[in-house]
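Action item from last week, closing it out:
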Amino acid sequence: MRAFPNSRSTSPRSTASRSAAAVGHPASGSAADRLRRVGVLAAAATIVCSAGVAFAPAGGAAVGIPVSPENAAARTGILQAVAAQPDPAVIPGDFVTEAGYRPVIEAGMLINPNGDCSSPVPLPAEFDLACKSHDLGYDLLRYAAAHGQPLGPWARQTVDAALERRMHAACDTRENPVSRAQCQVMAGVATTAVDLNSIRQDYGNPIYEPFFEPSGDAPSPARLTLAGIGVAAGLATVTTILVRRRRSRRVSLAPERGPRALDGVAVAL
């Protein structure tokens, strides 16, 4: 890689900076700009840290590939839950007894008829069947783990990927472009939340961890995340106030510009 030569010539950018300073405008490297950058970086760091704490690996999360053979019935059930033409007959009878429901086919999807989109924010109604099928997939993962034969990370990844694909496909049925775009955004938000939780649990057995409830003495993930966002918003607000005050003080102290009459002669300053 060729290094830039050490030249004393003046660049257009530096010339523009000095020109801006000469007419009373702050240069790009002014204290106000530095203060704004510090505020933005602090806000971003706060959000990242809070999200990292909220979605840190759970204590009971599975790690690595299961040492025991995978449950064959659950494996088949997972593959049927994400198939285009599923067969409900492959679901084992003891799963129906233990789960308390029998999976059914609706709109070409094998679903948990009692499932729903468990989300802290309202999701589009079009996601309902995708969520119910996702619930069935997670119940099959729990079924395999309860029988001492958990499925590998591939299974949860497959179920999550099917949810993402089906939510986006559901949004495509909307005719209005704006409404369709809004639906796609919500699909992305829901997918991100599901992915973060799966990463947190290392794509193992889905553990029930209420997002809004504390775990022992530790605060809930929701409280940590909201606290981080609140701190970030506060830092951004304080930074904005300081920058505006600094600009107002600079304007008030700057000499008056423009033509001024002196002994009947207009003098330009």
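Closing note: The beta strands are 104-106, 109-111, 259-262, 265-268.
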